[in-house]
Write a structure and sequence with these properties.
mainly beta; Lipocalin; 0% helix; globular
Length: 142
C-alpha cells in the first residue's frame, strides 16, 4: 500500500468509521475489489494527499457470520492501517463479517491491535460493484 498509488477496486457507497482511542474517523472514499475468493475493502480519509489515512482489509468470501478471532490464515486474512508513509499490520483481535457477493453488500467490524499496540475499532457497511482481477494480488504479511 502506498500513498502514491491509485486505489484498487471500484468506488463504493456506505459508511466506514474507525476509532483510535477517543478519535473517531469517517472515511471520505471507499473502494471494493475482488480477487478470486478474497474481497478487498479499502477506506480513505483525506485521499490522494500527503498524510492520508487508509484502512485496508482482505477477507475470504466464505468467512462464516458471527464473531471470529483474527487469524491471517482464514476469514479476515489482512488488516492494515496506513497513516502517511507508515503502514501497520493487524496483530490480534476479533472481527465479524457478513459478505454478500451476489448482492454486493459487505459488512465487516473489527477490534484489532496493530503493531506498536495501536488499537483500532472499525466498521465497514458498504455496497457497490467490485473490480475483478484474474489473480489475487495479496499485500498480506507472512
Amino acid at each position: 500500500m502506498s500513498t502514491n498509488k491509485v486505489p484498487r477496486g471500484r468506488k463504493a457507497e456506505g459508511i466506514v468509521e474507525w476509532r483510535i482511542g477517543e478519535e473517531v474517523v469517517k472515511a471520505d472514499a471507499i473502494f471494493i475489489g475482488r480477487h478470486g475468493a478474497l474481497v478487498e475493502l479499502t477506506a480513505y480519509k483525506n485521499p490522494f494527499v500527503e498524510g492520508q489515512t487508509v484502512i485496508y482489509t482482505e477477507t475470504r468470501l466464505d468467512t462464516p457470520s458471527g464473531p471470529q478471532v483474527f487469524d491471517r490464515k482464514k476469514g479476515l486474512v489482512s488488516a492494515q492501517y496506513q497513516i502517511g508513509p507508515a503502514t501497520y499490520y493487524g496483530d490480534r483481535g476479533t472481527y465479524e463479517a457478513t459478505l454478500d457477493a451476489i448482492n454486493k453488500r459487505y459488512k465487516l467490524k473489527f477490534d484489532i491491535i496493530f503493531a506498536t499496540e495501536i488499537h483500532i475499532i472499525c466498521t465497514f457497511d458498504v455496497s457497490g460493484e467490485h473490480l475483478f482481477a484474474p489473480m489475487p494480488i495479496s499485500r498480506t504479511r507472512s
